[in-house]
Amino acid sequence: MGSSAQPERDGWELQRDADEGWAYAPRMEDNHLSEIGSQLDLLGLEETRRMAVAGVSKPRERLRKLDQVEATHELLSALPAAEDLSFLHSGLCQTCLPHSRPAKNTAIWRRHSGRFTLIVTPGLIDSSALETRVRQPTEAETDAMYVGVPYGTKARLILIHLQTEGLKNRIVPLGASLSAFMRSLGVNVQGGQRGSIAPFREQCLRIACANFKLQWSEGSRLVVSDTKIVDGLELWGTKGQGGWAGSIELSSKFHEHLREHAVPLDKQAISKLSRNSLGLDLYTLLAYPLPRLSAPLHLRWSQLASQFGADDTTKELGRRIRDTLPQVLDVYPWAKVEVVSSGLNLHPSRPAVPKTVINGFRLVEADTRG
User: Fold this and answer.
1) How wide is the angle at C-alpha 105 spanned by C-alphas 102 and 109, nearest 5°?
2) How far apart are CA 18 and CA 347, in angstroms?
3) Which of 22, 58, 115, 187 is the most exposed place for a label (fewest CB within 10 A)?
4) If we measure between CA atoms, which residue out of 158, 142, 162 comes closest to residue 150?
5) Radius of gyration (Cα) for the chain, nearest Å?
6) How many Å apart are CA 131 and CA 341, to the nearest integer?
């Protein structure tokens, strides 16, 4: 494949790889954000800013380089405190929910990563009139009871919120706490049919009703675990808390498993990616294995397609990942990731959250064997 046939991407160029042929990678004249971090440690902010734009004449390019330096400096100089941390179960870092609404609420969702498989089965809620419940439901009425599997950015944000708060207490209050969480992500809290609260409420219902089946293989041994993330849900309408309030109780089984398998995330990074479901997926995927790798790991596009919550073709998913990865590296600047023609090369990297700020939680060990 000749390099001249490929379009140029902002901040990326085609480079010759010995094994993979031509592939997109960060431009060699650009400072990768992890390298910017090293320069900031050695030289300080002002000297790093000066070096970043040395010899660059185009105003737009100078601004882009300075933005990279400023973003990296902000992340490095403001290490997250305990209240700035979010957490997600390691299994949900490896396998992802749908990006968009499934065609049918009755559809089962399945994703696979190495020896681990996630199967999400939608739950049911009977919202029919009381007088119709004296008989068995028809097939159409049964289909109408399914609320569907959770999907999209809101489901991801709610799951992160539930697991972060759930590490403190199995019963997670909604309403005021969820409204505050929405505001912290830059989401305008509005009630009503077209407001922002109704979609969050819908995803809470989908998460509360769904069954998450975790299945993995250990040699010839097959292990299957049915896990309800949520044991109980209470929701009610209010006028003073943005339209609704309530609480969610995590199941004791999931709560115990979460305490052993919680992956720390930077809440600031989650906020910056809060409107990008693929960006959230990439960030959590990288946050899980990169600090635990002892050698480079290659993930093919076909492997990534089986993990991510998209129905794209492998080629389309690769394009979307190439386009989204720079945004992820903006919030995880020390992630060492290469884009090659067949997928992603992951290299041992510093954690997304420094271990020094994590108290009371055991970091999980990644299984990187496919």
Assistant:
1) 55
2) 17
3) 58
4) 158
5) 22
6) 60
